[in-house]
């Protein structure tokens, strides 16, 4: 399941990332911020416009904004309540 469909506030574990979907600089930045298999994430906020972009992801103590298309490239498994 892609990270783009996780409910706001639900915790999930990253199981895979399709790094080909990212520009190399974006991939490096996200890897440096802890987006990698095994990491726990949650959706803190979603955009308010039609595409619901961007998504604010909570990774550890950080909040990182990503586009919905990039969130879709991050496969997760739900861990906690929504």
Automatic annotation (TrEMBL):
Ferrous iron transporter FeoA-like domain sequence ranges: 1-78
GO MF, one annotated term: transition metal ion binding
Key words of the record: Iron
Highest taxon above the source species: Bacteria
Signal peptide from the UniProt entry: none
Record flagged with keyword Iron: yes
Coiled-coil residue windows: none
Pfam entry (one): FeoA
Protein name: Iron transporter
Organism: Croceibacterium mercuriale
Source taxonomy: Bacteria, Pseudomonadati, Pseudomonadota, Alphaproteobacteria, Sphingomonadales
């Amino acid at each position: 399941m892609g990270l783009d469909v996780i409910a706001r506030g639900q915790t999930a574990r990253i199981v895979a990332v399709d790094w080909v979907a990212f520009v190399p600089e974006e991939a490096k930045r996200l890897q440096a911020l802890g987006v990698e298999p095994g990491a726990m994430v949650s959706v803190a906020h979603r955009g308010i416009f039609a595409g619901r972009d961007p998504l604010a992801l909570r990774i550890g103590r950080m909040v990182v904004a990503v586009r919905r298309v990039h969130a879709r490239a991050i496969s997760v498994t739900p861990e906690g309540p929504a």
